Fold this sequence. Notes:
alpha/beta
Amino acid sequence: xxxxxxxxxxxxxxxxxxxxxxxxxxxxxxxxxxxxxxxxxxxxxxxxxxxxxxxxxxxxxxxxxxxxxxxxxxxxxxxxxxxxxxxxxxxxxxxxxxxxxxxxxxxxxxxxxxxxxxxxxxxxxxxxxxxxxxxxxxxxxxxxxxxxxxxxxxxxxxxxxxxxxxxxxxxxxxxxxxxxxxxxxxxxxxxxxxxxxxxxxxxxxxxxxxxxxxxxxxxxxxxxxxxxxxxxxxxxxxxxxxxxxxxxxx
Length: 250
Ligand code: 3PY
């Protein structure tokens, strides 16, 4: 069976709730004929608006992060149950911006993924190397390690709710995109690791996305690769016509 292709927008720290309402209204008609799954991951403050507006449409809503504890004295944090209660379905964990600017580690990424999965959320786990790591030739080892640690204690059944996004850090917000061959190579390596841990059937069924400056111009080539099952989209997800082009290419 062919894997489910997923195009997910990562809005990052953009759009007030009022602005989100406008963008979602533009997105709904623009992506309604998609044959892939369409997800928009928004700031926490946009989630209520996004969930309400997309009800009954083919757009699924995700958050951009989640805390790993269930509740308690964690000022400023948001739990998985809080997201579920709002009607949120997805959450990104371990985006490189979280790792770089907010001291996320492979261990906290794993804890967040487990908390989200145990609460019934679907997770988009981000992995990817820096430019220095690529130049040193350790991309495969690094991505293997990130993937394995992120998935520690995740069951084979829960893998149905796991998406891995390969996002080379050097291609994020830089306008540089990995070539389709580079994207395919690492996405295939990620699938191989999943196969080693969970077996071939789970590996073949798991959606592995490419992310990092995927846009309306380069999406077709990237998405044509056999191990690239969709994309996690930064800047281009903030423009309805561009996002629609990517969605319709998947
Ligand atoms: C990008 O496209 O730059 C992203 O980081 C998507 O998550």
